[in-house]
């Protein structure tokens, strides 16, 4: 039952006896013995304990023994790995024909980005800012958030074939996420309110290419947020910054517009072998500004690019450019990278991603 080492060691039995004897000797109920000093007590004990017990060293002085485990000053307590923030995307979405024009070079690009989002990032939800939603009949400092769970589509275009007006895009909203977005905006002193609104073609046309329901469905909640009804880049930077914490919940922010968008010159430019000069020069200058590695420098350069002589040619109205400023604001310190572009007539189709994919961490 006991190890043979235990049976061979008298101390195994003697040590408890010593403790009991000492306690009795020092007890107040034995006044005669309590007058003895500890050395005298030990002398008396030697008369009936083996000498070898007193000559055998213990492994450590009793004062140093402790039942509390020691912790080295160099001990490192491991922390759970921090989840990477979801990337932010800017889609150049094109017109309502983009979902039908399968031979256009942007078609496989948007498909590839969509698969990247659903298969690599795997978001818990998507929040989208579209160039086609600037609230009307409100001041330039109010934001609207779609808080409906089920929404229709808004066919906000004219003169296209009848089947364009039968397009569908299945999606489910999230009233709770919409409410959370409104609270985030309020914390940043941005006026916002929720309402029920359909998805405009700045969302559903490009999303039907990136997230085709049959082969790569966007099977997570989708909430659309408006732009400001202004051309103020600083305000749109702040709008992006106000919602950047969504990324920590693996919510992907997608901003849709065009990096060059001049409808006035479209008829003049289409069919020409070369794009309009401003489509090239402005798109290149914008790329240089967005790809600045320092976030503050990026903001400065993106504001400065709007003062270029070709800026108003590239964007007679800045609605299709402001979503890129929201994306840059939501990116925080994460770098932006142009993943693809194309200069065509009076348009440029640049696609951007801010931040890293999960496997790149």
Describe the protein in words.
The chain is an alpha/beta fold. It has one domain: Protocatechuate 4,5-dioxygenase, Chain B. 35% of the residues lie in helices and 13% in strands. It has 14 helices and 11 strands. The chain has a 6-stranded mixed sheet, with helices on both faces. Strands 7-10-9 form a 3-stranded antiparallel sheet. Strand 3, helix 7 and strand 4 form a beta-alpha-beta unit. The longest helix has 16 residues. The relative contact order is 0.16. The N terminus is likely disordered.
Which SSEs are present, and which pair or pack?
Layout: H1 4-8, H2 11-25, H3 31-34, H4 38-45, H5 51-55, E1 88-92, H6 106-121, E2 125-130, E3 142-146, H7 175-187, E4 191-195, H8 201-210, E5 222-225, H9 233-242, E6 251-257, E7 260-261, H10 266-269, H11 277-290, H12 295-304, H13 311-314, H14 322-331, E8 336-340, E9 343-344, E10 347-348, E11 351-354
Parallel strand pairs: 1-6, 2-5, 2-6, 3-4
Antiparallel strand pairs: 1-11, 7-10, 8-11, 9-10
